[in-house]
UniProtKB/TrEMBL annotation:
It catalyses: UMP + diphosphate = 5-phospho-alpha-D-ribose 1-diphosphate + uracil. It comes from Corticicoccus populi. Uracil binds at I194, G199, D200, A201. It is an enzyme of class 2 (transferase). Binds 1 Mg(2+) ion per subunit. The magnesium is bound as Mg-PRPP. Pathway: Pyrimidine metabolism; UMP biosynthesis via salvage pathway; UMP from uracil: step 1/1. The keyword Cell membrane does not apply. Belongs to the UPRTase family. The gene is upp. This is Uracil phosphoribosyltransferase. Residues 6-208 form the Phosphoribosyltransferase domain.
């Protein structure tokens, strides 16, 4: 079974309190999501492989460490994933980026795919799938299934807020995918929104409601 990491660092909890607050403006919301994305990168990338490189400092030569192998590929789930991916990308600027467009049908709650574009060599890369919200888990499960179909198998899922129902569904469908969460909330409401949550992440990021 996959690991679930709840990243309750004080800085993350502090920023999450503003992200959840309905009085927070669109501009501040976007900036805060970006910042929490950046803070989460430390833990998410903790186990990346390093290799030795010879470096000449102004004083002497030494053996230093650099990330080895092919670069990371970020996969934001459109739309809301874009807002969080920006912060992650600032700390891993050489990462490739694939995109998958999914929306949650409000009646069936199924994830409907409307766009997908991935790097050609995605199967050789460490993949970080990014979406602020893990509610029923349908969108994350669908996105990861689509990525695996292209041959990738080293996949982590990164989100701001998860419901227990979403964590369970994702672990059941993709038991090899570790899950990184800033906050694990209580449950889903009757429309499958996360309680207490933050509302609709896409609408709050892009000011569409
Ligand atoms: O776990 P689930 O029940 O699938 O719900 C989570 C999904 O819902 C939201 O996207 P939404 O469908 O609102 O699309 P948007 O990003 O375009 O707003 C969110 O960003 C996730 O992708
Ligand atoms: O609470 C939720 C659930 C799904 N999508 C969101 O943006 N928020
Ligand atoms: Mg939305």
């Amino acid at each position: 079974m996959s690991n679930v990491h709840v990243m309750d660092h004080p800085l993350i909890q502090h920023k999450m309190s503003y992200i959840r607050d309905k009085k927070t403006s669109t501009k501040d919301f976007r900036e805060l999501v970006d910042e929490v994305g950046m803070l989460m990168v430390y833990e998410v990338t903790r186990n990346l492989q390093l290799e030795d490189v010879e470096v000449e400092t102004p004083i002497t030569t030494m053996t230093a460490k650099r990330l080895s192998g092919k670069k990371i590929c970020l996969v934001p789930i459109l739309r809301a994933g874009l807002g969080m991916q920006e912060g992650v990308h600032k700390l891993i600027p050489a990462a490739r980026v694939g995109h998958i467009g999914l929306y949650r049908d409000p009646e069936t709650l199924q994830a409907v795919e409307y766009y997908a574009k991935f790097p050609a060599d995605i199967e050789d890369r460490d993949i970080l799938v990014i979406d602020p919200m893990l509610a029923t888990g349908a969108s994350a499960v669908e996105a990861i299934t689509a990525i695996k179909k292209r041959g990738a198998n080293k996949i982590r899922f990164v989100c701001l807020i998860a419901a227990p129902e979403g964590v369970e569904a994702l672990q059941k469908a993709h038991s090899d995918v570790d899950i990184y969460i800033a906050a694990l909330d209580e449950k889903l409401d009757e429309k499958s929104y996360i309680i207490p949550g933050l509302g609709d992440a896409g609408d709050r990021l892009f000011g569409t409601r």
